[in-house]
Amino acid sequence: MSAPFPNLFSEIALGSCVVPNRIVSTGHHTYLSDNVPDERLIAYHEARAKGGAGLIVCEIVAVHETAGFSHNLLKAADRKSVPAYAKMVNACHAHGTKVFAQLFHPGREILSAWSGMLPVAWAPSAVPNERFHIMPKPMPEALIRSIVAGFGATAANLAEAGFDGFEIVASHGYLPAQFLNPRVNLREDDYGGDFVRRLKFLRDVIRAIRDAAADRAVGLRISGAELDTDGLTEEEVRRICEATASDMDYFSVVAGTSASLGGSVHIVPPMGLEHGYVAPLASAIKASTSVPVIVTGRINQPQIAEQVIANGEADLCGMTRAMICDPAMASKARDGRLDDIRACIGCNQACIGRAHKGLGISCIQHPESGRELDFGELPPSNRQKRIMVAGGGPAGMKAAAVAAARGHKVSLYERQRRLGGQANLAQRLPGREEFGGIVSNLEREMALAGVSVATEMAVTAELIGSVQPDAVIIATGARPYVPDLEGLDNAHVVTAWDVLEDRVNVGASAVIADWRADWIGIGLAEQLAASGSSVTLCVNGTMAGETLQMYTRNHYVGRLHKLGVSIQTHARLFGIDDDTVFFQDTLSEEPILMEGVDTLVLALGHQAEDLLETQLELAGTELMTIGDCVVPRTAEEAVYEGLQAGWNI
Asked: Which residues pair with 493 in a beta bridge?
């Protein structure tokens, strides 16, 4: 037992399964395997087991042929799949970690046209999905019975593979929740109508799983409140849990629903939401049922998890993104190495952001996640080199840390007083404060690896000539892009960086020209509106935040709506004359005029700082270029290229 965390590192029984600690990697779709676990998915989960997770709930497994959700959903209807699942379970069991399987049917909550054709979605009733614009087909009773049988058959095969327990996914408005919701289930047969009949589907599923795997733990994942107009309310969920408590070994409590844009934000809540904000929902269920409760939702540090458990709000904590960001988080906490934990910042870029593109998940801070087969054990260098890194943003810091950890002698130079580059600007925006965590995390990685750091020192050809390194990694980043447009010299025109560094007075009326359609434009709009300016966000795209992961975008755009920010889409900046800004509609090419403007704020992307690269190429120096100085992109590409540079140099 770890002294700082007496609750977190104590064992707990979930039915027949004794879990060694209270840290849970909850079920999440990784997009690392097709249909059955392969080596990538096995390596991914084993890394978290090796890192000390007490319980891993593997990702959703379809229980029926009508449970289509994505192109690579796991399946286990065929007994031929048992050996692949057994290999994954055994890999985790080798480290003392318990493993549960999620049993899943989405009902109407399916990604439209995931197979290339609009699918037939089945649900209790023909009540449309708002988010995916799906009109489902009501299930006949024969299909309901077939799906219930599918839960049991899938559980039987997975029990044979060695899973310690099963979790019924009734969260986020998926099929069991649709049967439970009186606004979605409009049936008048045995599976709908009053509260007892709406429970029948779930009760039948529980019975089927118990009959198939009587000696295994069975739990229910459910949203403590779906946080949507037509979603299940907190009171309704509490009543459901009370009614099923005698059949459950645990409840896994989350929040939100897949059915609406606002409700879906809580599926993977971005950094703008408070740490541990779902805990009160879990606490209410725990108090009314006396059944062990797992809670998930922005719990990214062991201190937060310990407090939630100590307060009696939950018994275990889902820390999924925390372990995507740092697979060894649990063991580091157990050993008291808190400063070494790489804390998740809730950016959603490479975890759910990649998943929503159908790509294997990863992490912008720890690109090794999801790539365990490519970046497993760090290879020591064959020959120690003296390496200079020019630039102390995320790309340079990651490259320096990895190269030094391999045994090279690494010196990093940053021309500014502080390390971090554009991450220091990102953290100045409202709701983005945690983005600065990437800087402190990478600083710690460099310190542990023994990197020498010099700030307020720019790398020049002369400095390189005096140091005589074996190689130079250039990570000099980018600067704001300012186009040559008519009228820029005759009006008050500033860049996003000017605003974030408090170098300008914006005035009462501001227009933001947002070409990138990322976090900068929407963040500036919120900051300026909150300070009292009248703000119009003019986006050269179909929507504000178009390039962001959808949960992050929808959360922050909702904040703009509450502040009364005006949003103009399809707007190409054309020019400015005194207090009038001219845009062009990107679809019709018609003019868009913004009049009475005090300040035009340019958020038009960035331009590579590549002068040093040009100088060194002419001098014949061995070099590598990474991050924005190659071409401006995001922190994900910067850190990944830093990893590659440090790995390969």
From this structure: 600
The domains of the chain are located at 12-295+306-317, 386-480+608-648, 488-604
Quote the mean pLDDT of the chain: 96
Mean pLDDT of 301-324: 98
Q: Give start and end residues of each alpha helix (H) in 392-460.
A: 394-405, 423-426, 437-449
Which residue, 53, 71, 54, is CA-closest to 62?
71
Mean pLDDT of 447-466: 95
The pair of structure tokens assigned to 17 is: 């399964």
DSSP-derived letter for residue 485 is: -
Q: Give the SS3 label for residue 473.
A: strand
Whole-angstrom CA distances from 146 to 63, 77, 142, 444, 526 are 10, 12, 6, 54, 50
Distance CA 584, CA 568 (A): 11
Give dist(CA 442, CA 69) in Å, integer. 37
The token pair that represents 235 in the structure block: 């009171």
Q: Which ranges of 279-379 would DSSP assign to H, the alpha helix? A: 279-289, 302-310, 320-325, 329-334, 352-355
Report helix, strand or coil for 74. strand
pLDDT at 92: 98
Tell me which DSSP letter residue 380 carries: P
The confidence score (pLDDT) of residue 1 equals 43
191-194 long-range contacts, Cβ below 8 Å, gap at least 24? Answer: 191/124, 191/141, 191/144, 192/124, 192/125
187 within 8 A of 139, measured Cβ to Cβ: no
- Give the torsion sign (CA, 522, 524, 529, 531): positive
Q: Which of 546, 540, 391 is nearest to 479 (CA)?
A: 391
Distance CA 178, CA 105 (A): 11
- Mean pLDDT score, 302-329: 98
Query: Mean pLDDT across the stretch 193-204?
Result: 98
11-22 residue pLDDT tens: 999 999 999 999
Residue 438 identity (one-letter amino acid):
I
Whether the per-residue pLDDT at 472 is higher than 90: the answer is yes
According to CATH, what is the number of the domain 488-604? Answer: 3.50.50.60
* Cα–Cα distance measured from residue 555 to residue 562, given in angstroms and rounded to the nearest whole number: 11
Domain 386-480+608-648 fold is Rossmann fold (3.40.50)
Q: For 12-295+306-317, which CATH class?
A: alpha beta
Q: What local confidence, expressed as pLDDT, does residue 619 receive?
A: 65
Structure tokens at 56: 């891993």
